[in-house]
Amino acid sequence: MKLDQDKISFGSSSCEAAKTMNHGFVQLGNASMLPLHCEILRSNGGTLSLEVKKDALVSVNGCRVIDSTRKLNDMDLILLGQKSLFTLRVELACEGVG
User: Fold this and answer.
1) Mapping DSSP to helix (H, G, I), strand (E, B) and coil, where does residue 8 land?
2) Does residue 97 register a pLDDT over 70?
3) Conformation bin of residue 65: beta by default, left when phi > 0, alpha when psi is -120 to 50
4) Cys staple from 37: which of 11, 22, 46, 59, with CB 3.0 to 4.6 Å?
5) How far is CA 79 from its chain centroid?
6) What values do phi and psi take at 18, rounded to 5?
7) Proportion of the chain in helix, strand, coil states, percent, rounded to 5
8) Residue 98, Cβ density class (10 Å: 0-12 exposed, 13-18 middle, ≥19 buried)
Protein backbone atom coordinates (compact mmCIF):
# COMPACT_ATOMS: atom_id res chain seq x y z
CA MET A 1 0.00 0.00 0.00
CA LYS A 2 1.38 3.40 -0.91
CA LEU A 3 1.14 6.24 1.57
CA ASP A 4 -0.28 8.85 -0.81
CA GLN A 5 -1.77 10.89 2.02
CA ASP A 6 -0.22 12.30 5.18
CA LYS A 7 -2.07 9.84 7.40
CA ILE A 8 -3.43 6.29 7.29
CA SER A 9 -5.55 4.97 10.16
CA PHE A 10 -5.88 1.32 11.17
CA GLY A 11 -8.77 -0.11 13.17
CA SER A 12 -11.84 -2.32 13.33
CA SER A 13 -14.55 0.28 12.78
CA SER A 14 -17.09 -0.13 10.04
CA CYS A 15 -16.58 1.17 6.53
CA GLU A 16 -19.28 3.79 7.21
CA ALA A 17 -17.16 5.32 9.98
CA ALA A 18 -14.10 5.27 7.73
CA LYS A 19 -15.94 7.24 5.02
CA THR A 20 -16.13 10.25 7.35
CA MET A 21 -12.32 10.45 7.59
CA ASN A 22 -10.38 12.67 5.18
CA HIS A 23 -7.54 10.18 4.87
CA GLY A 24 -6.89 6.49 4.27
CA PHE A 25 -8.38 3.85 6.57
CA VAL A 26 -7.42 0.17 6.77
CA GLN A 27 -10.10 -1.99 8.38
CA LEU A 28 -8.79 -5.14 10.06
CA GLY A 29 -11.08 -7.91 11.33
CA ASN A 30 -8.72 -8.91 14.12
CA ALA A 31 -10.67 -9.35 17.41
CA SER A 32 -7.94 -7.52 19.36
CA MET A 33 -8.23 -4.36 17.23
CA LEU A 34 -9.82 -1.17 18.58
CA PRO A 35 -12.17 0.88 16.38
CA LEU A 36 -9.30 3.36 15.90
CA HIS A 37 -6.15 1.42 16.79
CA CYS A 38 -3.26 3.50 15.43
CA GLU A 39 -2.17 5.86 12.67
CA ILE A 40 0.87 6.11 10.43
CA LEU A 41 1.76 9.76 9.84
CA ARG A 42 4.09 11.28 7.26
CA SER A 43 5.86 14.56 8.05
CA ASN A 44 6.72 17.21 5.45
CA GLY A 45 10.23 15.79 5.31
CA GLY A 46 8.91 12.31 4.51
CA THR A 47 9.62 10.82 7.94
CA LEU A 48 7.06 8.21 8.99
CA SER A 49 5.83 7.80 12.57
CA LEU A 50 3.35 5.54 14.30
CA GLU A 51 0.82 7.06 16.71
CA VAL A 52 -0.67 4.42 19.02
CA LYS A 53 -4.11 5.05 20.52
CA LYS A 54 -4.91 4.45 24.20
CA ASP A 55 -5.18 0.75 25.13
CA ALA A 56 -4.15 -0.42 21.64
CA LEU A 57 -1.94 -3.51 21.40
CA VAL A 58 0.92 -2.54 19.03
CA SER A 59 4.50 -3.79 18.76
CA VAL A 60 7.34 -2.60 16.52
CA ASN A 61 10.20 -5.07 16.03
CA GLY A 62 8.94 -7.06 19.01
CA CYS A 63 8.82 -4.11 21.43
CA ARG A 64 5.44 -3.00 22.76
CA VAL A 65 4.53 0.63 21.99
CA ILE A 66 2.24 2.10 24.66
CA ASP A 67 0.17 5.27 24.18
CA SER A 68 2.86 7.12 22.30
CA THR A 69 4.34 8.09 18.97
CA ARG A 70 7.31 6.21 17.56
CA LYS A 71 9.47 6.96 14.50
CA LEU A 72 9.31 4.20 11.88
CA ASN A 73 12.20 2.93 9.78
CA ASP A 74 12.47 0.84 6.64
CA MET A 75 11.86 -2.87 7.27
CA ASP A 76 10.25 -2.34 10.70
CA LEU A 77 7.90 -5.18 11.66
CA ILE A 78 4.60 -3.77 12.94
CA LEU A 79 2.19 -6.04 14.83
CA LEU A 80 -1.32 -4.65 15.27
CA GLY A 81 -3.41 -6.52 17.80
CA GLN A 82 -2.42 -10.17 18.07
CA LYS A 83 -2.56 -11.24 14.43
CA SER A 84 -1.96 -8.44 11.91
CA LEU A 85 1.75 -8.28 11.05
CA PHE A 86 3.19 -5.86 8.48
CA THR A 87 6.68 -5.10 7.18
CA LEU A 88 7.17 -1.41 6.45
CA ARG A 89 9.01 -0.59 3.23
CA VAL A 90 9.63 3.16 3.41
CA GLU A 91 10.84 3.64 -0.17
CA LEU A 92 7.74 1.83 -1.50
CA ALA A 93 5.31 3.59 0.85
CA CYS A 94 6.46 7.04 -0.27
CA GLU A 95 7.29 6.28 -3.92
CA GLY A 96 5.89 8.85 -6.31
CA VAL A 97 4.66 11.07 -3.46
CA GLY A 98 5.49 14.69 -2.97
Assistant:
1) strand
2) no
3) beta
4) 11
5) 10
6) -65, -30
7) 10, 35, 55
8) exposed
